[in-house]
């Protein structure tokens, strides 16, 4: 534990000093150089938020001198999206997984952003003969990655029987509970129509919301998938209108033609002050969404606390975001970049506890007491504790946001009970 506190002290000092960039290749001779990577969608609607995540992580590494314990750490970035798809891609994720394993200097992966991509990559990383190779996500929230959800989950992602996936945000079952409670208690909706994008994340979060909504006394009057390739969704929303729903929940990611979906919802059902429109964190952090007049009055849930909430208390989060703003002229897009740094802090703590091997880094998370980042050092302002049995965090914060004036604004924060 003393070594983790030392890591936090170094990071805090570096953040306070707002040091200039440091080239980690100039570290003292004899230290072992390790690579940590990010695996994010760098094309399409997610590009800005993912790019800012990479920039913020690099800034953090620069500020701690690219060093942790006896190791020099460098960052390598991977793109799991394609220009043609404009979002994460199955084949790109599969290739990245093999490329991670092939780079012998790489000891951990920060990512992925999308749960479906994580489910493709984790089994490959798990079977690495020198590992397993650790992945710590800032955004992959599907419950099945760490606990029983769909058939065979989570065991099928860990063929060796050893866990190698962790995350610093809560899961979609808790996000669904929080969104449903807000819909009932604050918005006083009575009938909800639940849509999903037919992908892993979307199916999971839609299921979680529908289950929780029914328990809250909200009638789920219909469930359907939207096809991201369709030019419009007028017929779909005519069906929703006929159901008498006073709420529509979009379970999925904005990348899957979410803009057209929002436009057609308003065109058929009216603005969001009437029939409420809700969506999960797969719709947060998108400048294109915020630019849509039809998104005004839309409610979003986020599996964590927003950057504004995290920086309001000062400390490491505020200092890091201020340094980013000074360097790039504006704050990072969305709230996931800061959680990307939180995931990186977990990886660095694991490296410091390890012998510098893939197996050693992974074992630091999934054996003994695991890894804990003290609240005073964490960029979330809260203690980050990873359960060594599951890889989940014990923080279950969920934020509800309201889109107004072209911005995501704070509506309510909830800490969901287990």
UniProtKB/TrEMBL annotation:
This is Amino acid/amide ABC transporter substrate-binding protein (HAAT family). Keywords: Signal. Gene3D superfamilies: 3.40.50.2300. InterPro entries: Leu-bd, Peripla_BP_I. The keyword Cytoplasm does not apply. It holds the Pfam family Peripla_BP_6. Residues 1-19 form the signal peptide. Residues 41-365 form the Leucine-binding protein domain. The lineage of its organism: Bacteria, Bacillati, Actinomycetota, Actinomycetes, Kineosporiales. Belongs to the leucine-binding protein family.
